[in-house]
Amino acid sequence: MSEFAFLSATDLASKIKNREISCEELLAYYLDRVDRYNGDLNAIVVDVREQALAEARAADAALVNGDALGPLHGVPMTIKESYNLAGTPTTWGSPDWQDNVPTEDAVPVKKMKEAGAIVFGKTNVPLMLADFQSYNEVYGTTNNPYNHERIPGGSSGGSAAALAAGLTGIETGSDIGGSIRNPAHFCGVFGHKPTHNLLWMRGHAPPGDSRSTPDISVIGPLARSATDLETAVKVMSGPDEIMARGYQLNLPDLGGRKLGDLKVAVWKDDDMCPVSTEVRKRVEAVAEACRSAGASINDEARPKFESEHTHETYQNLLQATMSARMPDADYNSLKKYVDDLDPDDDSDAARVLRAQVSSFKEWGRNNDLRQHLRWKWHEFFQDFDVLITPIMPIAAFPHDHREFKERTIMVNNEERPYFEQVFWAGLTGVSFLPSTVIPTGLNDEGLPIGVQIVGPEYSDLVTIGVAKELETRGFAFTPPPAYC
C-alpha cells in the first residue's frame, strides 16, 4: 500500500469512493506511517487517533448505506496546532496556554469534517506563530523531511512537513507573514494564502478571542496537489452568518481559459529582499513554462508604488497586529521600553518596536496607505491575470534557535537580515491578495524551491487554476526520498 502515502486528497477520496480501500484502512495506514516516521520529524504533536478511528468506521458505514459523500470523504487530515480542536490544547507553542482546551472545533475544522475529512492530529508551530522555523518549549522542534538539519518553515511548518513526509492527506494552516507559503516552499508542497476574510477563521485565535479576524491574517490549505487546494478553498470559504444576510460567494475562475490565454507579469527579484540565483532561475522557469504555453509575459511591469513604501506599510500594520496578541503585562512592558527610546533612534529595530505599540491614529494612517496600495494593485491587474514572484530568497536553511537579533541568512554568499525574508509574503499580504505557492522541484542539495502566483482580490480560483495548469507541466510535488 506504499502507493497511498503521497497521493493527493482528491485521489484518496476517489479510491475510497471506488471501494479500493476503506476509510478505516486508510487512516490506519497513515497512523502506521506516523508511528514509524514522526519520531525524528516531530511534525504531528497532538494525536486523537481513537476518536478518528471511530469517525473512520462511521464514514465506512455511510459509504455502505449510500449516504451523500463530501469531496473529502474518509481522507485522513491533520490541522495546525493553532486551530481549536475540541478536547485538545491550543497553545500556539506557548507554555502559558497549555491549559487552553476548547470544547468546540474551529469553524474551518467543522467545515472540513462536514466535507468528509477525518482529523486525527495537530501539527507543530513556532512560539506565537511568529517565526520562519517551527519549534517551541511545549512540543519541541520540527525538522524538514528532505534534510533533518534544515527548517520546515513556519508558522505552518508542522503542516508542510507532515504532508511532504506522507503522514497526512491534507492540511490547513494560517498566514500573516508567509506562514502557509514559506513552509510550502521549504517542504515542496502546494499552499494557498486566500484573499483576506474569504475563509472564515473563527476558532483560530488566542484564548478568549475565537471570533475575531485579525488584520492581514488568513487561514488556508496546504496539499500535495493544486486540485486539493481548490477543493479546500471551496469547502472553507463563504460568508459567516452575519454577512450571509446580504452576501453570496461567487468566485471567478479561469472560465475555460488555458495557460496560453493569460497575461502574466513576472517580478523576479527586488533590492528590498534579493533572492538567490537558484530561486530567481525557478521564477524564470515558471515564466518560461507560461510563455511556452502561449501566455503573454512581461518581466518589467510593476504596480505604481515603490517597494520600500509597500514594505514599510506592511511592517507597520503587521507589527501592530502581532503585538495585539501579547499578554497585557508584556505589552505594557514593551510600551514603557519604547517610551524610553532615544527620539533620534531611527534604526530598523526601533521602527519595529514603535510599530508594535503604535497609536490608533498611526495605525489608521497606515491603513489608509494600505487602501491606496489595494487600488494600485487593482489597476495593475486590469492589464494582467497573474503575477509570478519568489516567496522566499533561499531554500531551507539550517535550524537557528539563537535570539532573533543574532540571526542572519546567506543569499548569494552575502549575509542578509533574518526578517528581510518576509518581504515577498508581505508584498501581497498587506493588500489582501490571494497567493498560491507551487513546487518547482529539488535543488542540487535535494531541497525544494517554491514560486508564488499572485492575483487580484477574490481571484483565488484563478491563481489555483494557474497552479493546476503548471502542475501538469511538471511543477509538481516530489516526495522526500527518505520517506518513500
What does this structure look like?
There is one protein chain. Among the domains are: 2-260, Amidase signature (AS) enzymes, CATH 3.90.1300.10; 307-376, no CATH class. α4 (107-114) links the parallel β2 and β3 (118-123). The chain has helices spanning 9-17, 23-41, 49-64, 107-114, 157-164, 181-187, 226-236, 277-292, 307-323, 328-339, 348-356, 360-380, 423-429, 460-471, and strands at residues 44-47, 76-80, 118-123, 135-136, 140-141, 171-175, 190-193, 218-223, 263-266, 296-298, 386-389, 408-411, 414-417, 435-442, 448-454. Strands 6-8-7-14-15-11-9-10 form an 8-stranded mixed β-sheet, sandwiched between helices. Strands 1-3-2 form a 3-stranded mixed β-sheet. The protein has a two-stranded antiparallel sheet with strand order 4-5. It is built from 14 helices and 15 strands. It is globular and about 70 Å long. By secondary structure, it is α+β, with helices and mostly antiparallel strands. The N and C termini lie close together (12 Å). Helices cover 36% and strands 14% of the residues.
Structure keywords:
15 strands, 14 helices, three-stranded mixed beta sheet, Amidase signature (AS) enzymes, alpha+beta, eight-stranded mixed beta sheet, 484 residues
Note the total helix count.
Answer: 14
Rounded radius of gyration (Å): 21 Å
How many strand segments?
Answer: 15
Major pleated sheet:
8 strands, mixed
| CATH homologous superfamily designation of the domain at 2-260 | Amidase signature (AS) domain
Helical fraction equals 25-40%
Strand % is 5-15%
